[in-house]
Amino acid sequence: MNRVGIDAHAIGLQQGGNERYIEGLLKGLSEIETHPFRFIVFLNEKAQIPDFLKNNPTFEFKRVSSNPGKRFLFDLSNPKRYGIELLHTQYHVPFKIKIPSVITLHDVSYLTHPEFFPISERLKMKFMMPYSIKKAKKIITVSEFSKMEILRFYKKARGKTCAIYNGISDCFKPASKAEIQQTLEKHKIGTPYILTVSNLQPRKNLKGLIDSFSKIQRKNPGFPCSLVIVGRKLWLYDEIFVEIRNSEFNEKIIITGYLSNQDIISLYSAAEMFVYVSFYEGFGFPPVEAMACGCPVITSNTSSLPEITGEASIKVNPKNSDEIASTILQLYHDKNLREKLVERGFIQAKKFSWSECAKKTIKVYKEVISHL
Fold it and tell me: Which superfamily is assigned to 2-167+353-370 in CATH?
């Protein structure tokens, strides 16, 4: 069997979409009954082996550092010692690698919106991505929008970039009343509430959402919804907390920090609506997860979000806080519209399968190895 190495260091590091992606891909690969591959999965030193991979003879595990420098310069630089014929990583190809590689490049927001990244991250992407684009035999990205963006910025990506949609885990489905009640009590959240889920960073436009929420409260005394923000601090998040402190309605804004899937599913299931007005996304897991849990969605009319959410969401200009505010009010007062979006959302969410993602990724592996 051909041996494929998969860099899964993101598992357990609370890395949002990167972690969702690699865990979902592995789950999909584990469900394919026949293929010509054995997978060597590289986990960080503290990560637990996912339950769905335990006792699966197709997978074996090696440990790598969660420090990117050490991981790429040492741990992954010579995968040949494990008998690996192909290495699959996210974003970056290790220097001096002597076997073919596949990368998953989720988006190029570091090029389109450099102001949303710390300078260290911008420099890393500026200097490492051209090498990775050139070196990789195949580039997987997660939407047709993201594919077009990659080809717009990287000429060397032409002819070897393909779009393979992410999947949504089967665990995302409406929670029971008991599960919802337990989660709400644990985090001291009352209903009704508006929900958003994302890392705390400028690209997610949480500052704009908070501004829109404050406008609603200011113009509509007695509006009953609180705003619940779920996600860990990533970078350049100070302005988000400044916006909250400056809001006269900050007692109605709740930041939970990073939560387990189980808790997030309960919050999706009980929310009046899910609002995700990010400036730029290569895919955007949270809106589709919310749909799968039966929550009506408002999202941005930019980047990949119209492609991914289809007719199952209301789209707004993320730069227009008045439009965001008025749309939230419209959806809150229109029960029929909420029900229609919920119905469409269940249908839309079913279009995204990790099994399908894995099957298409296997085809990429086969194509690369066939040219060895």
Answer: Glycogen Phosphorylase B; (3.40.50.2000)
Taking a C-beta distance cutoff of 8 angstroms, is the pair 293, 268 a contact?
yes
Cβ neighbours of residue 368 closer than 8 Å, sequence gap 6 or more: 86, 100, 102, 137, 138
Give me the residue label for tokens 């959806």: 331
Separation of alpha carbons 320 and 334, rounded Å = 21
Closest CA to 353 of 25, 87, 5, 3: 25
CA atoms in the 13 A half-sphere facing the CB of 84: 29
Q: Return the amino acid letter for 100.
A: P
CATH of domain 177-349: 3.40.50.2000
Residue 205 confidence (pLDDT): 97
Average pLDDT over residues 149-158: 97
CA angle at residue 170 from 299 to 300, to 5 degrees? Answer: 5
> Structure pTM?
0.94
Hey, CA dihedral for 171, 177, 180, 182, is it positive or negative? negative
| pLDDT tier at 214, thresholds 50, 70, 90 | very high
Q: Is the distance from CB of 215 to CB of 328 less than 8 angstroms?
A: no
Question: What is the band of 155 on the pLDDT scale with cuts at 50, 70, 90?
Answer: very high
* Per-residue pLDDT tens digits for 13-26: 887 889 999 999 99
**End-to-end CA distance of the chain, in Å?**
14
Q: What is the mean pLDDT of residues 197-216?
A: 96
Backbone angles phi and psi of 115, in degrees to 5? -65, -15
- Strand pairing partners for 38? 3
One-letter amino acid at 300 equals S
**Phi and psi of 3, rounded to 5°?**
-105, 120
Distance (Å, whole) CA 293 – CA 301: 22
* Complete DSSP assignment for 72-141: IIIITT-GGGGT-SEEEEES-PPTT--S-EEEE----HHHH-GGGS-HHHHHHHHHHHHHHHHH-SEEEE
Chain region(s) in the chain for CATH 3.40.50.2000: 2-167+353-370, 177-349
Q: What percent of the chain has pLDDT over 70?
A: 100
